[in-house]
Design goal:
heterodimer, A: 300 residues, mainly alpha, 2 domains, two-stranded antiparallel ribbon, globular, B: 267 residues, 11 helices
């Protein structure tokens, strides 16, 4: 590695300059590390410890009790809520990723230059704006008197009840992160070497075959990453299930909020959060295997 | 067949963009509606909801959000950029583990982050203040600043610094006089984007802010009350603010590559 010391110092001074370099590197790299250690790792470790604490007369007590764990897993409601949360997160992430493929294809192979940059900027901008109000607007769009039903009425079809339905939830999640998922898949497809597609076409492959056998495998990492992002966002979201879903279909995040706001039961909420993190870890590990498995068929 | 494929794809892309932008369009449209319900048909044009925004609680929520966004994005950009420089120009053991670890917090579900931060900050006596929101937002946004600045540093030739060292500059003087001017657009972009994220963040702020509500928490509280198009009016103003931040960040980020290319051509 290049460093100022190589350019100036010689002999005895070199040693002290090298250690100065070490200090410079540490000074630059340390603040962010210290921040994440104190405000991320420490809270995370505390959450794990907290699952064994207990609550006595509304006060948290240091303990080594399995009470919170058994409370959660012996509740008859927990399993239904857990299954719903998992299916909603998997379903909405899969839906967003599948819907992103044609859009990403258009971005990657049908536009270029300034127009493509503009399209990418247009795609990602909404993700960073108005998270809360987007859900608010979607809820009213989907209501009985909302815009969608007004449009349907023009076509002469009776009102569709979206309120609290699975369809409304899926639309809500799509409204939340479809733009981000589409952005990530687009970046992945942009990195596909178009000469390989050209070669496949020259060998007589149809557009469909080129897409399935060349484009999809080569952008697999981006597709899996986009799916994982969607899954993570859906899993940890409170606003869509509680506001668009109307709370009629509780998810893990709703359960966590109720456990804190209603009962101030931190140990039980910590167990729920641990379950959520464990689920995320398993799904991401499976996704990782899918993304990197048999990368090079010759070595498989 | 080929032609048909093209136009089908174009129609699909247009429909996808309509889906993405429909809520923004309707949000703004119904902010100017006379009715308090955001229902079609549009009842009539009115500025009533914007005029009724002038109230103290909203003003203090906006002020809180501004303070939190400015403080957290300043800290996140500074320590994120320092880390990015460290990663780009130094070699050390466990570098990959270091990067993976500092990028981890935004990969954790927001509700889990909110819960563990509330529990932890309560335990150490830092909860229920604007300061606690700043702490959490730095955690959430510094990886973003790190990533943006690192991307930019990877485009800046390390030879520029070597040249400065040859001319007698120290590491720090080279950073100040050579590196900083070259990465300045990405620093500003990182600052603006992290500010937009902080300005818009709801879940964590809702958990840890206590009585010091930020703008998203204020809006959430409004959602629980009577339906009012004031939500649309506030949402519109908030949207214009964050969209400006994000678009400015994007413009800076896309322009800087072109400007470096020019500089190197002349150099």
């Amino acid at each position: 590695m290049e460093s100022p010391s190589k350019h100036r110092g010689s002999g005895a001074r070199l040693g002290s300059l090298l250690s100065q370099e070490r200090i410079a590197g540490s000074l630059l790299g340390a603040p962010l590390l210290v921040w994440q250690l104190s405000f991320f790792l420490a809270p995370l470790v505390m959450m794990l410890a907290m699952t064994f604490w207990s609550v006595r007369s509304y006060r948290l007590v240091f303990d080594m009790s399995l009470q919170a764990w058994s409370d959660v897993f012996s509740s008859p409601y927990f399993y239904g809520i857990y299954a719903r949360t998992l299916l909603l997160a998997l379903g909405s992430a899969a839906l967003a990723t599948a819907a992103a493929l044609p859009l990403a294809y258009a971005v990657a192979f049908h536009v270029s230059g300034a127009r493509r940059r503009l399209l990418l900027a247009t795609l990602i901008m909404p993700y960073f704006t108005s998270y809360l109000v987007r859900s608010y607007t979607w809820r009213f769009i989907l209501e009985d008197h909302g815009v969608i039903n007004a449009l349907i009425r023009v076509a002469g079809v009776g009102p569709v009840r979206f309120q609290g339905s699975i369809a409304a939830l899926l639309i809500g999640y799509m409204g939340y992160f479809f733009c981000l998922v589409a952005f990530v898949v687009s970046l992945g497809m942009m990195a596909v070497d178009q000469r390989l597609m050209e070669a496949a076409r020259n060998l007589g492959a149809s557009p469909r075959q080129v897409f399935i056998n060349v484009v999809l495998p080569l952008s697999r990492t981006a597709i899996v990453t986009a799916f994982a992002l969607g899954f993570t966002l859906a899993l940890g979201d409170y606003v869509v299930p509680s506001y668009i879903g109307g709370g009629t279909r509780p998810t893990l995040s709703i359960l966590i909020v109720n456990t804190i706001q209603g009962q101030s039961n931190y140990p039980r909420a910590a167990v729920l959060a641990t379950v959520m993190l464990g689920t995320l870890a398993v799904v991401l590990a499976l996704g990782q295997r899918l993304a990197f498995r048999s990368r090079s068929p010759g070595h498989a | 067949m080929h032609r048909f494929g093209h136009s089908a794809l174009a129609i699909y892309a247009a429909a996808a963009l309509v889906f993405i932008y429909a809520p923004f369009f309707l949000l703004v449209l119904f902010a100017f509606n006379t009715s308090r319900f955001p229902y079609w048909p549009f009842q009539g044009f009115s500025l009533h909801w914007f005029q009724s925004m002038a109230n103290g609680a909203l003003f203090s929520a906006v002020l809180n959000s501004l303070l939190v966004a400015l403080a957290s994005s300043f800290i996140a950009t500074v320590i994120g950029a320092m880390s990015a420089y460290c990663i780009s120009r130094f070699n050390f053991n466990a570098k990959n583990a270091y990067v993976a670890f500092i990028l981890l917090p935004p990969c954790v579900p927001l509700i889990v982050l909110a819960l563990i931060l509330l529990a932890f900050l309560r335990q150490v006596g830092l909860a229920n203040s604007l300061g606690s929101v700043v702490i959490c937002h730095v955690l959430l946004t510094s990886p973003l600043a790190f990533g943006l600045v690192r991307l930019r540093l990877s485009q800046v030739d390390p030879e520029f610094e070597s040249a400065a060292w040859n001319l007698g500059a120290s590491r720090w003087v080279a950073i100040r006089d050579v590196v900083l001017p070259l990465i300045l657009p990405s620093l500003v972009a990182a600052f603006l984007l992290t500010m937009a994220v902080s300005w818009d963040e709801f879940t964590i702020a809702w958990f840890v802010s206590g009585a010091n509500v930020t703008l998203p928490v204020f809006l959430w509280n409004m959602f629980q009350g009577q339906v009012s198009a004031m939500v649309n009016a506030i949402g519109t103003v908030s949207f214009v603010g964050s969209a400006t931040l994000v678009l400015a960040a994007e413009a800076l980020f896309f322009r800087q590559r072109a400007s470096t290319d020019r500089r190197i051509d002349h150099g």
